Amino acid sequence: MKGKPYHKANTTSKPNSKNSPKQKRPTPDRVTSRDSAEELRAGDRIVVTIKRLGINGEGVGYYRRKAVFINGALPGEVIKAEVTKVENRFIAAELKQIEKRSPYRMDAPCPVFNICGGCQIQHLSYEGQMAAKEDIVREAFSRYAGLENVRMKPILGMEHPWGYRNKAQLQLGMGPDGMIAGLYAADSHQLVDITGCPIQHPKVNEAVDLARKVLQRLQIPVYKEKSNQGLVRTIVVRFGFQSEELQITFVTSSDKLPKQEQLIKELRLAIPGLTSIAMNINPKNTSLVFGNRTVILWGEDSIQESLGDLEFTLSPRAFFQLNPLQTVKLYEMVRAAAGLTGKETVVDAYCGTGTIGLWLAPYAGEVRGIESIPEAVEDAKANALRNGRSNTTFYEGYAEELLPRWVKSGFSPDVIIADPPRTGLDSRFIEAVLRTKPKRFVYVSCNPSTLAKDCKDLLDGGYSLEWVQPVDMFPQTSHVECLILMVRKE
Ligand SMILES: C[S@@+](CC[C@H](N)C(=O)[O-])C[C@H]1O[C@@H](n2cnc3c(N)ncnc32)[C@H](O)[C@@H]1O
Questions:
Q1: Which residues form the TRAM domain (predicted)?
Q2: Can you tell me the distance from the alpha carbon of 477 to that of 141, in angstroms, rounded to the nearest whole number?
Q3: Which of 104, 163, 172, 486 is in Cβ range 3.0-4.6 Å of 441 for a Cys bridge?
């Protein structure tokens, strides 16, 4: 990199701002051979001021009004970077040198931080992470909903933002020293061994490591995608923070598990507190981890966990929030947003094991949950019984199919809660919401971009956005959970 000139952008300008560098001739010390971003080529050197973090944790700045994404760069930093890609809408560049360092930059505690794709911002202090996440949310509402000044409540963070995850889902593979359990490196198919992940609960780390050693000792073959040989693809460990129960699920390419009895015996001996051992069979090479069939190999078919005074039963495939401490804060905000008086009919769409609906049930007249995974619906029903929430009913199906059907037959809820996956809401679901016109629509999301896009459709359909509440469910990563309250305009 020595000897190559750095092309400086006017980094104080926002894209589209009136002071855009486009109108100015570069001053002599900024003269470059590239007058426009379009002329940049891979290998060019540029200097960029980082304005904010992008949705994947990359630093985002501008060069001649075009967005530049630089992995590892932090807001407020001035970065010397080498262009790696020039696309129509953005430039990707590699961090070469930090000219001005963020006061929030720190050494990442995890030894594999630079290669593991799990966390993106361990090198940013927690204070810096909170500010950056608020910015990510603001940016999403500005970009996708056209809202420049959303009423945003301060992000709800964690007192101790480590060891918070109750579940690990790790790919198995073979490394030079034997079997490894890990995550793929960012943008690659290279498996990074993860031992002692600092955002996992220590009990989860311990169970993963012990189970991996047992598999290796018994020479249970690891699945190899390339050759379509072998058996165990993924290990999933879930730990109940309150119950201290442990569930291990092996995702396998077939149900022909060798040395099954010995495996169970050794796992039980090696891992104290083990409650359940399951095998989920996924014969297909898809991006979905789980297949449709789960077999309980030993112990209980589910583990128990509690949130507040509610107790839950969790089967291996059922969705359950990963950060139980923050989940309680999130659900309390949902309750505040729902504004219940004890009489309302509430829909809990995308309800998982029914957690939000059950949380709200004592404050509502009736709650109907919708969930697409059959086992989760069964769990939700069992959870309702167990917790005496007799005013709840849980339905198996797709929210975008069931809600329109209910609305067509005259069902008219007062409050709809939606907590969809990252892809956001289906347009058929939004249409049904707009047709049935609940007074309040509470949207919980782990993806600010799809949240803001869907919010725009609801704004256009006669709702106002009352407030946005970010909740830090995933410290050390660039992910941010958000909750919004939308109210029907009269
Ligand atoms: C983000 S989780 C939320 C679960 C729950 N609200 C909670 O807090 O634990 C989304 C849930 O939606 C379910 N799901 C995904 N697509 C769905 C669809 N089209 N209709 C209904 N449920 C769906 C998933 O199985 C998952 O349980």
A1: 39-97
A2: 20
A3: 486
The H-or-E segment that residue 293 falls in is: strand 293-299
**φ, ψ for residue 73, nearest 5 deg:** -85, 150
CA of 267 to the centre of ligand 1 (A): 31
109 secondary structure, DSSP code: S
Catalytic residue among 119, 351, 446, 455: 446
Which residue, by CA, sits nearest to atom 6 of ligand 1? Answer: 351
Please name which of 489, 490, 445 lies closest in space to residue 468, comparing C-alpha atoms.
445
Q: Which residue has the tokens 């889902």?
A: 169
373 lines ligand 1 (CB under 6 A): yes
- Atom of ligand 1 lying closest to residue 331 CA: 8
DSSP 282-320: --S-SS-S--SEEEEEEE-SSEEEEETTEEEEE-TT---
Contacts of 123 (CB under 8 A, 6+ apart): 72, 74, 105, 106, 107, 108, 113
Catalytic residue status for 116:
no
Q: What ipTM was predicted for this assembly? A: 0.99
Count CB atoms within 10 A of the CB of residue 342. Answer: 8
**56, 422 in Cβ contact below 8 A?**
no
Ligand 1 atom closest to 370 (CA): 21
**Bridge partners of residue 249, in order along the sequence:** 236, 278
∠ CA 203-207-213, nearest 5°, is: 150
Closest CA relative to residue 470, chosen from 487, 446, 490 = 446
Rounded distance between C-alpha atoms, residue 187 and residue 176, angstroms: 22
The candidate with the shortest Cα–Cα distance to 52, out of 43, 62, 37, is: 62
